[in-house]
Structures are given as C-alpha cells and as structure tokens.
Write a structure and sequence with these properties.
By secondary structure, this protein is mainly β. The chain has one helix at about 1-15, and strands at about 25-35, 50-65, 70-80, 85-100, 100-110, 140-150, 155-160, 190, 200-210, 210-220, 225-235, 240-250, 250-260, 265-280, 290-305, 315-325, 335-345, 355-360, 365-380, 380-390, 410-415. It comes from Oceanococcus atlanticus.
Amino acid sequence: MHRIAHILATGLLVASHSAAAEFYQQLDTEWSLEARAFPDNAAFASQSDGQLSVSLLSEWYAEWNRDFSVTIAPFARFDAQDDERSHIDLREFYWQGVFDRVELRLGISKVFWGKTELLHLVDIINQTDAVENIDGEDKLGQPMVRLNWALGGVSLQAYALPYFRERPFAGEDGRLRAPLPVLQDDALYQSSDEQSHLDYAVRVQGYAGALDYGLAWFSGTARNPQLLAANIVNTPNGPQPTALQPFYGLLDQLSVDAQYTVGSWLLKLEAVWREQGLLAQLPGQAPQLIEVDYGAATGGFEYTRYGVFESAWDIGYLAEYLWDERNDAADNGFQNDLFLATRLAANDVLDTTLLAGVVMDLDRGSRFISVEASRRLDGSTKLSLELRLFSNIDARDTLFYPLRQDDYIQLELTRYL
C-alpha cells in the first residue's frame, strides 16, 4: 500500500505548488436504502429470504486555474445479512493536471472502456465490486498513474497500475454467492510480487466520422480470478473440497471496441484476444501452471424509435450476440448466448426509464431475465426497481448455476443531498 500513499502524496505536492487564482468546488452526496426479497428457498441453511442494506456515496470535486483538480469519492455499505457485503471503499481519490495537450492523473480512480450493453469484455482497468451487483457494473477504485495525450480527434492513454485490488465475494450468509465459501484472505498469485505487481496498459481512442473506436493493450494481473478447489476432506463419496481459493494469473489482453452510428441505429462491437496463466488441477497431482490463449467477442445493435405514439416516449430495441472460444470453460458464463432487450425512456421531468431483457444460452437452454426501472419521486429522491430471474439453468453454466435459486426483486430508495 506504500505505493498508493506515494502516488497520492506526489499529486498533492504538485497541487500545493499550483497557484489558486480561480477556485471552484462541489460536494455531492447520496445515500440509498436497499431491500431485496428472494421468493425461492435458499440453497444453504445460513441464507435468509431477504436482504436489507444502506449505502453512502459522497464526491468532493475541487478545481483551480481551470487546469488542476482533486476528486475524492468514498463509498460505504452496511448489509444486515452479509458481513462480506458490508465494506468501505475509496472509489476515487486523485489529482489531475492539464498541461497543454497532456493530462496527468495521479491517485485512485475509475476508468470505463466499452460499447456493448450486457457484457464489457474490454473493461479491464478496475476490479469488479462483485458484492454490489451481479451485473459487473460496480468497480473498486484502482491506484494509477495515467497520461492522456489529445491529438486532434484521437487520444493516446498510458497507464501504470502499481497495486492490485482483489475481487470481493459474498459471504456464507449472503445470497448470490459461490457454491462454496471463498477464501478471500488466502488468494494465490502467479506473480511473486502478488498485489504489488506493476500492471500497465495503453489505449488509443477517437472518432472517425460516425465511428467511435478504441484499441488497447493490457499486461498484468487478471481481474477475474480462477476459483480452485481447496480444503479437501475425505468423505464416503471420495475427496471433496469445502472451500474455493482464488488464483490470480498473469494476463495479456489485446482489445478493440467500436460503435458506428447510422441514423437511429447504433452498431456495437467488443472483442478481445487474451493469453492467461491458469492452474490445471488433476486428481492426485499438484496443480500445474499452464498458459492458455483464446478469443471472445460480443456485438450487436440498438435501434431507437423517437416520440412513439406522438408522445415524448422513446423505445429502443437491443440485440447482442456473445461468443467465447473457451466454450464450457468460459468464466463469464457467456460462450454462445443471445441477448434481447428493450429500453424505454419517458423523457419526463421525473426521468422515468426501464430496461428489460433476456439472455438465452443457445447451447444449453438456460435463461436469465433482467428488468431495471427507475423514476424520481421529486427533485432529490429516486426510486429504483430491479428484478433478476434465473430459468432452466444448466449445470455447465458456471456463472448462473450457483444462483439458480436466487431469483430476487430489489427496491432502492436514493436520496441526493
């Protein structure tokens, strides 16, 4: 962690030597009360049929001389049922300076890469905060040094990532958990530097007419861990694991993402090629390190009809195909899947929106249904609804099979201060 402190100290030292002729600051805070109900019987005796939690997110932004800024965004959640879901994270804490065409960022930050709706294959910089939601959208803050060069309609970004964040998992009492307890304090690493391994990335992104594109290279520790059978005990049915141990191998990733706009159509693509270190587990033998390389891609379209039925409503139709060369070994659960969805936007003062979709496994017949809706109750309060359903889940669906009894409906009340 000393590298993080050094990065922050360097940024604040630079800031202290910057003149403050023009100063602007803003503080935004939101708290949320979240309630989940699980209608199906829990798979494990320690799990409950409901889950109640409260979260707080605050962001302070300060800017001076128009070229220098500091952003601090702490996040905290308390969950009444799952101790592992109760956590505090510094989502962002960075200094940023602009020097002509070059932008320098030092500290803890979040970076998003991607174009498609369901799965962001190319999004590799930040670790997923997996206890927040299964959709993978929530991220932990990542210590970084980032340089961004603006070159006309193209920008070139370079990242140095001096510290690795491990993925959090739901605890034994939580729903939406792995089939066995995860040994989160006993992770294994391919690199002897473990969390101090220096990762790096470079990215080119820009516009060419109606095309919005990004091309990137990442080399470092894989964000998605391999879960290994651990704590083996002898049973009448033979040796059985009683826990899962995370293994973080080294990963090289070449990625491309693109979006092309044609009238009311958005054509989207994300594709990756990866070379990754994994541990092969064979019965009666010690795990062996192997290197695997594979490709994966997702792509599709979104078509929007504006002002339907002579109203302010817009309706979008989405379709995406997801492919992974690893087939049953795909750790994201999408190896040959089709995603269909519709997006509604009322364009009213209360910002009413709805996104409903289904993911269909074309090999196994598994179905995952998702509905997300939100509406402001007034100028500072929002009510959100989330529904997740798992149907006909095949045992080979490694992502969804442990969740087959975890259908849930969630209500969240958010207050903006």
